[in-house]
Amino acid sequence: MDVSSEMIYPLMPLFLTNILGVNKSIIGLIEGVAESTASLLKVVSGYISDKIRRRKVLILAGYGLSTITRPILALAASWSWVLGYRFIDRIGKGIRTAPRDAIIAESTSAEHLGRAFGFHRAMDTFGAIVGPAIALIVIYLYSHQFSSTVLNMEDIKIIENAFRTIFWFSIIPGLIAVFLIIFFVRERIIKSQSDNPTSIFQNSLRSADFRKFLLIVGIFSLGNSSMAFIILKVQDVGATTFNITFLYLLFNAVYSFSSMPAGMAADYFGKKRMILISYILFGLIYFGFAFSKTQTHVWTLLLLYGVFMGISEGIQRAFVATLLSNNYLGTGYGVYHTMIGLIALPSSLIAGFLWDIKGPQATFLFGAITAAIASTLFLIFFWKPKRI
Q1: For 19, which of 56, 92, 154, 327 is 20 to 30 Å away at the CA?
Q2: DSSP at 207
């Protein structure tokens, strides 16, 4: 499914700014509203999957919904269409995310959780390499139609046509993903829960360590603004649409290839140590983005950001599994993802506002500061010699 999504994602902020002519605050609004509103479904979906002990049907519904929304983006005539697409697409993600993580955790022994989630992120991100590669081919084919080396209105229309063609093509891998889920995904059938909704939520939040981790993740996520702003930073230092898409492909390659080794390292050295390393690395990267003005520096930081993603994404989810009972994994993952999603609204709004008022430096410095705060709290709450 990531092939489908990642054909689109690196082009969306460029489509909004260069074709539809919106400012950074609107991009922040679109990203924030889409992620936060849809994230409310993550905890609901997680609870339902715990209650009925059926994960696959929710995973299928989520991927299917995301696939059928693609024509909205391909036909978009204004930023409100893009907002509608992002909203419905993220609802699909909200439905599938918690049940998917729960089915991975249930299928894996505790000592191999880091490796399992690292492998999942690696495979997920491998699709994110193929997606931009397809987009690159389409952009390259359309670039031969340019009338001159200096873009004019006719050339901008050609770029728009390339974007819309890619958006249409993204439907195909989405349909393939739905087919594979229907016929090849198997799940363990476990007796349904008799608990009422209140007790399930209370039990999932009973762990004090889980509540502390949610606080830390919330603070960190406030500064971890949408990837769209990093893409805009790359454009800000002079990268072309083709180069941006190619760099996004390289970013995903680094992300994919670092996920599995990071997961194995987490199982060996401890998940807490790797999470702390990822927070510190993020802070340094965002500090670098704030002051970098050359393409070489920004491109290097983007690839390092791929390393951060490879470390943090899967390992944080594996760490959550160590804080929760198996009976409440779906709800717990729903709460975790909902926390991140709800913070996405103020995070993206703050990022867009700071960019429009003070420039990109303020946006990335804010992220570096929140990462420093999250790192400090993680040390206070979780740093012990014992390995988890």
Answers
A1: 92
A2: -
User: What is the DSSP secondary structure assignment for residue 379, as one 8-state letter?
Assistant: H
C-alpha span between 276 and 342 (Å, rounded): 23
pLDDT at residue 121, rounded to an integer: 65
At residue 110, does pLDDT exceed 90? Answer: no
* Domains located in the chain, CATH noted: 2-382 (1.20.1250.20)
* Sequence-ordered strand ranges (E) for 132-223: none
Distances, alpha carbon 1 to alpha carbons 7, 8, 21, 122, 234, in Å: 10, 12, 29, 13, 26
Residue 114 has pLDDT above 70, yes or no: no
Residues 336, 45 contacting (CB under 8 angstroms): no
d(CA 64, CA 58): 10
Q: What does the pLDDT read at residue 201?
A: 56
Residues 6+ apart with CB under 8 A from 380: none
Structure tokens at 285: 């990267």
DSSP class per residue in 258-271:
HHHHHHHHHHHH-H
Residue 349 has pLDDT above 80, yes or no: yes
Cα 54 to Cα 93, 326, 333, distances in angstroms: 17, 14, 15
Q: What is the DSSP letter of 224?
A: -
How far, in Å, CA of 226 to CA of 222, rounded?
Answer: 10
